[in-house]
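Here is a tokenized protein:
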Amino acid sequence: MQPVVNKGARHFLAALVILTFSVQVAAQEPSADTPATVEGESRQQEPGDPPNGENGDARPNGVATPRAYIDGTGPEWRTLGEADFADVNGRPETWEWDGELVRTTGQPTGVYRTRQVFRNFEMMLEWRHLESGGNSGVFVWVPWQALADLPPDELPGYGIEVQMLDHGFADAYRERTGEEGDWFTTNGDVFGVGETTFSPFPPTSPNGARSFPRKHLSGGVGEWNHYYVRAVNGELRLWVNGEEVSGGNGADPNLGYFCLEAEGAPVEFRNIRIRQLP
């Protein structure tokens, strides 16, 4: 025999089901103060945002820090090889190619430029130091006047440097000077060079000239590191091993050559890929 439920009880149960469903839907809907996100995505951390949580794995609101391992294989990306570069102030043995890998001895100090100038672009490359304490980097937006007749053992007087320092550089600096090097880091500093104007994103070096990385993500000597650089209308942002860490804006000039740097130590670069933007 089926239990008998009176009409009033049925109405009460129906109302209870509707109320429960409404509460569940409201709990899932973002409030006006919560930025909407697509399922599986998270908002990119911007310069000036609060830093990530203490463990470095999530923002304070619990949203995972996005990673950007751009491999440069999509539409309009192209690989830069030996035919795309020209020596500026090195010796014949300073730069050597092996497929998509280029190696520098680091001697003499100088740069190796692209044959083409760039304004707006995104670029990725991998790099590694072969000796502890090595110093290198890439220069962006270097005008021709900074490269013409540049003698050996000098670097351009214009451009934005995206630095690549081995962690051993800090130890060597301490041993050489007896001081802690508070004006640099070994995890992706970005700064204007010489006559170039540039406003670095915080945090910055004590003198305000360098954008210091918000997280320390670079690998040590012998380890491959992945850099992704996005440069648009004088603004440059750097991702180190998948996370945005430093950058700045207001660069002037913001049209010029892209250069690899030799500065005293052997370094390897590979998979140098670039995509021009409008």
Observations:
- The chain has two domains: 1-66, 78-276.
- Residues 7-28 form the longest helix (22 residues).
